[in-house]
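During the reporting period the student researcher (J.K.) took over the structure-prediction task from the postdoctoral fellow and processed the backlog of single-chain submissions. One of the processed entries is reproduced below for the supervisory committee.
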Amino acid sequence: MREVGAARGVRFLLLAVVLAGCAGPETAGGTYDPFERQNRAVHAFNREVDRALLRPSADAYGTLLPEPVRQGVGNFAANLSLPGTVLNDLLQLNIEDALHNSVRFLVNSTIGLGGLLDPAQASGLAARNSDFGETLHVWGAGEGAYLELPFVGPSTTRDALGMVVDVIIDPLNLLLAAEQRLFVPAVGVASKLGDRYRFRSTIDSVLYESADSYAQARLLYLENRRFELGRSAAEDEYMHEGLYDELIPE
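J.K. obtained the following C-alpha cells:
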C-alpha cells in the first residue's frame, strides 16, 4: 500500500514539474492578479469564516491553554513538517540545509520528547524552512497569478500547486500508519489556532481595520513570500518572527 503511495507521489512530482511551466510570469515586484474578482469573493468568505469560527476558536484556545502548552503544540507541528522540508532541500540540491534540518529533526525527536521541546534551537540549529513552492521557484517556475484560496488564504498559482504536492510527497505518509497520519492535520490545525491567537492584533488590523483588507492581505503575502524566497539561511528565523511586526507595527 505504501509502495502505491510512493508511486503516486512520484507521479504528482512529475506532474508538478510539467505544470510549473504554466505557472505564469515572475512579476518582479509587481502584482499579477487576473482573478481579482473571484479572489475578492473568496476573501470575503474567508473573512466571515474567521469572524464566525477561526477568531473565536483561537481566542478560546489561547485563553484555555497556557503559553507553554501552546508552544509545545507549535513545536510538535513544526517537527512533523521537517521530513517534508528535508525532502524539498534535497530536491533543491541544498545539501547543507538538508543535513541541518535532518539533525534538527533527530535532536528534537529524541531529546525534545518527540518535538514538544526545541533543544535544537538552543544548540544553534534554528529552523530552515522550505516547501515545494520554493522548490518550484528554485527550478525556475514563475510566481504565477495571485490567488486567495478558501480556508487557506493568500497564495499564488505556484504556491497552491506546491501545497498540494507537499501533501502528496510528505515522507510521513510512508513512515506513519493510516491512523497515525490522521493525527498530523489535527496537530496542524491546533498549531494554526495558536498562530491566530499569537498574531491576533496584526491579523485583526489587516482583516477588520484596513480600508481594503483584500489589497492589504495581498500586499503582505507577496512581500513576505518574496522576502522568504530571497532570504539567506541566517535570515529565516527573522523572517518568521519579525517581518509582520515591521510591516504592521502594533
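The committee noted the following: The longest strand covers residues 146-149.
J.K. will present the remaining backlog at the next meeting.
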